[in-house]
Each structure stands twice: as C-alpha cells, then as structure tokens.
Predict the structure.
Amino acid sequence: MERILAQWGPSRNTELFGNQPICVQHRLPQHPLFSRDALAELIERYPEDKYMLVNTGERGSPRKLWRQGKIGTMPGHAVIDAVAKGRFWLNLLRVNEVDTRYQELLDQLYAEIHANVPTYPNTYKRICGILISSPQAQVYYHFDTQGNNLWQIAGSKRVYLYPATPPFVTDELVEKITLYHDETSIPYQPWYDDYATVFELQPGQMLHWALNAPHRIENNDELSISLTTEYVTKEIRRHVLATSGNGLLREVGMKPGLTLGGPAFLAKAALFAAAKKSGLLKARQKPEIAFRLDQPATM
C-alpha cells in the first residue's frame, strides 16, 4: 500500500505534533476517492442528516452571515458547480461512517501519523469529513474541542492560527463551546491577526495545530476541497470531561479550576454525564433551513 504522508518534514515536527502548528506533505490529491466523479456520486447518496450546507459572508466581510440550507434533488456534479460559483461550504460529516472506504483511509492516515510520532498518545473515536467550499468563502473564527488535522486536496486557502491563550480564547469560552458546540458565538477582533501564525495551505499539505487553538480560514480564488480529521486521546477526553463539568458549575455561579485527575475530576465527569443523559445539553435552538440549492429563487 502506497504511503499517503509523502514527507513528514524536519525531525522537529515529531516533537511539535500536538503542541504547535506543523505542516506536512501528503498524496491525497491523487487519491481516487477525491476525484470529481467520486465526490459527485458520494454527494448524491449522502444522508440529509449527515451534512451541513452553509452560506457565508464574502472573504474579509466583518459581519457574520451564517445561513444553513439543503441540497434538495440537485445532482452531485451540479452541486459541486453551484459551490464553485457561489459562496458556500458543504461539509460531508462523518464520511467514514457513511462509506467504509473512507474509514480504511482514515485508519491508514493515523497509522502513518503514529509511525512518525510514536510517543503521541493513542488516538480513538476518529472521524473524518469532506469540506467542499467556494472561491473566496471563509470559515469564521472558532476553535475545536477535539484533536484536528486539515488535509488540503484541491484549491488553496489562507489559515490564521491564534494562540490557545487569553484573550484569544478563555476558560469560559472553552467550557461553553465544549458543552453546547456553539462555535459561531466566539468573539473576534481584527487586531488578533497581529498575533496569528498564517499558513498558505496548498493541495498536498496537511496542517495540524494544538488543542483549542482558535483559527479562521479564507479561501483563495479556486474551489477548495479538504479532508478534515478529528480524534480523541485519553488526555483530550479528560480535558473535555473536566471543562464540561466546569462549565456546568460556572452556570450556577461557581468559579472552578481545571483538574484532570482525582476526586474533583471524577465529580465533574459524573456531573457532565448526568447532564448529558438528561438531555439538557442538546442544541439550544435547531438551525433554520434558509435555502435549497435546487430552488435558486429562494436565495
């Protein structure tokens, strides 16, 4: 089986992985699973509850525009063409659960990562998605609560990565996002860019960054196709449980500290589990479907 990670880069990438941004080379642009025909066929049979279609503001616009839509009956190739001509991003979520070929690919990717970083903790609960987005489209300032890698396949984009420290992200924000996954509510100031590390991500490059590091993305002038991969480690799982418990405690007026072990951690994990089981943590508001691609008059 041909290796996908074409070049891991300097040896320091092994030490930086999990802690600092790194960029490495891969061969996914040549993989048959990411041809136009393969993606069009995948789109046509994709479950409606497993994708997100979003209309965003143009690149550089200060106002957040975030409208969710549906594909409707439009054929796969026509969907890709519509994205190429519009201002959308289509995220095929958990594609490894829809098509086992992507699960096999995901397993290979992380086997190769672990071969290059043998000291990195075991990853599990791995998922991947395919992001097809328009020229000049943007992804607003946000952060992820799990480990994350971005694999560029077609088109190029500018990625701004910010420190995972105040004022760019705070304990309260991490708790809120981890609990309710309301990523679009994170405050952003243009002067944050003065402290960003900027990558011009090209096809055949994978970008990795530290947990909870805020970032935003601007597409250049081509249709962009990316693979996103997420994962959990034992340490990340503990962080999720602890921050979620802290968020629940903060909602009742307490000011908890972050603990990843001992009785306090176990109590917070139990509190989070109970709240999750009760249904209290479901999305506070179901997103409104504002448009359909097969009904352009509604746009």
User: Anything to note?
Assistant: The radius of gyration is 19 Å. Helices lie at 12-16, 36-44, 76-85, 95-98, 100-116, 171-180, 234-251, 262-278.
